[in-house]
Design goal:
Pfam families: Pkinase. It is built from seven helices and five strands. It is mainly α. It has a single domain (2-218), classed as Transferase(Phosphotransferase), domain 1, CATH 1.10.510. The strands form two sheets. Strands 1-2-3 form a three-stranded antiparallel β-sheet, covered by helices on one side. The protein has a two-stranded antiparallel ribbon with strand order 4-5. β2 and β3 (62-68) form a beta hairpin. The longest helix is centred in the N-terminal third of the chain and has 22 residues, at 23-44. The radius of gyration is 16 Å and the shape is globular. It starts with a strand and ends in an 8-residue tail after the last helix.
């Protein structure tokens, strides 16, 4: 299974043959992406440079295994200002020179895509849409439930605390100060902690999203 901006969880929502991506699958995708990035950074000492949902390959027969594709291709081409589709860190002026910290920014955007169900730089045909800023504005105004993908609620999932904690982790990865962003291996540990703290995502639509509003005070939401 390939996650792309036109497949899961974003885009093409009216397709009859599309399988909705539940919260547990999204958490696994976030963990797999973090694992892959941590491996590149710590084992090989390499930055990926092109982290985005279309480069995250999930194996249907191994749900906890994944691969990050397109590593190093950005170094073969001249830098294009619009390259990255909303994933690239603001300080990255030369796309051929990614850093560990610019990778972490891209990972944060990927997490937001999983949480919100929105493409990073295009929603409802608006090519000026900026996903991180949209999320930060909602958090600033305490509209935390509005951040989460409506499809998750339609599936009847009740995982508000996990959603809020992954959202907080995404915001940390998007820190405008590169040195303040977490290391990839710390992100892996945090996601594993979130999953172990709350266990498997449960079903049952009785709780709604009201509890998320109480968590908004702990999220840094200043654009």
């Amino acid at each position: 299974m390939l996650i792309t901006g036109h497949d899961l969880p974003t885009g093409n929502r009216g397709a009859d043959d599309r399988t909705p991506m539940d919260w547990e699958a999204r958490m696994r995708a976030a963990l797999c992406a973090a694992h892959g990035l941590a491996h590149l950074h710590t084992v090989h000492g390499l930055a990926h440079g092109n982290i985005k949902s279309s480069n995250l390959l999930l194996r249907t027969n191994e749900p906890d295994a994944a691969a990050l594709s397109d590593y190093g291709l950005n170094q073969l081409f001249a830098p294009v200002p619009s390259a990255g589709g909303g994933y690239h860190a603001p300080e990255l002026t030369d796309m051929r020179r990614p850093t560990f910290k610019s990778d972490m920014y891209s990972l944060g955007v990927l997490f937001l895509e999983l949480i919100t169900g929105k493409c990073p730089n295009d929603a409802d045909g608006d090519d000026t849409f900026d996903l991180p800023r949209w999320v930060l504005v909602l958090l600033r105004d305490k509209w935390v439930p509005e951040v989460f993908d409506d499809e998750l609620r339609r599936l009847g999932l009740s995982a508000e605390e996990e959603m809020v904690q992954l959202l907080q982790l995404a915001i940390n990865c998007l820190n405008p100060l590169p040195e303040a962003r977490p290391e990839a291996e710390n992100v892996v540990k945090r996601i594993e902690d979130i999953r172990s703290e709350h266990g498997r995502t449960t079903t049952g639509g009785g709780e709604g999203m009201g509890g998320a509003e109480d968590e908004s005070r702990s999220i840094g939401a200043t654009p």
